[in-house]
Write a structure and sequence with these properties.
The relative contact order is 0.17. The protein has 214 residues and is of the alpha/beta class. The chain has a single domain, classed as Aldolase class I (TIM Barrel), CATH 3.20.20.70. The protein starts with a helix and ends with a helix. Helix 2 crosses helix 3. Helix 7 links the parallel strand 7 and strand 8. It binds 3-phosphoglyceric acid. The site of 3-phosphoglyceric acid has 14 residues, from strand 9.
């Protein structure tokens, strides 16, 4: 592992430890993104993942950065090197991938911002570990075994930390967070689609606050 990657992975871990809960957002416009991010920040969240699943995602990342809301804005659902470059060019402060095939792993290795690469199996985890990654997204967490799987992964991979995402909700977020290898949990439950569409920001703020166990 290079010193640069070690530092970058430590920064990823610090970001996740501070965040505890990471909303995974699919935004319809930049303005909606700013309002939503403000509501999440009001609920105590310190990092958000804007997925590149909508046409507005890149502009939303840029607008949320410009609004200077006191939270870190990452780009998620990064599937290839082009999306990686675009996300960083639009100001993404960290990068999340759902899975990490070799070409993408090689590209994110040299990213200028912290990266949380996704993996779901022991072999995928080992491929990332061999490249020097120590902070991974475990996706899709619940269908891949959830808390039981994360506990089992501590055996061979005691030096790794995971941000489980996929199928987690308000009811079990704290149980995941009780695991020693889970500094943060991610998911979309804090921002329901109907709240987003209705601009129901009070509900978003309340949900974020509950998710932190506050
Ligand atoms: C992700 O990309 O991390 C997931 O789509 C979030 O999963 P969830 O919608 O089940 O929380």
């Amino acid at each position: 592992m290079t010193d640069a990657l070690a530092t970058s992975q430590q920064n990823a871990l610090d970001l996740l430890r501070r965040a505890r809960v990471m909303p995974v957002l699919s935004l319809e416009s930049a303005a909606q993104g700013v309002d939503c991010a403000r509501a999440l920040a009001a609920g105590g969240l310190t990092a958000i993942e804007v997925t590149l699943r909508t046409p507005a995602a890149l502009d939303a990342i840029k607008a949320i950065r410009a609004a200077d809301l006191g939270l870190k804005v990452g780009a998620g659902t990064i599937l290839d090197v082009h999306q990686l470059a675009a996300a960083i060019a639009h100001g993404a402060e960290f990068i999340v991938t759902p899975g990490t095939p070799a070409a993408l792993a090689d590209a994110v290795l040299h990213a200028q911002v912290p990266v949380i690469p996704g993996a779901a199996t022991a072999s995928e985890i080992m491929a990332l570990r061999a490249r020097g990654f120590r902070v991974l997204k475990f996706f899709p967490a619940a269908p891949s075994g959830g808390i039981g799987a994360l506990n089992a992964l501590r055996g061979p991979f005691g030096d790794l930390n995971f941000c489980p995402t996929g199928g987690i909700g308000e009811d079990d977020a704290q149980a995941y967070l009780a695991l020693p290898n889970v500094p943060c949990v991610g998911g979309s439950w804090m921002v329901r689609k109907e709240w987003l569409q209705a601009g129901d920001w009070d509900r978003v703020t309340a949900s974020a606050r509950r998710s932190l166990g506050a």
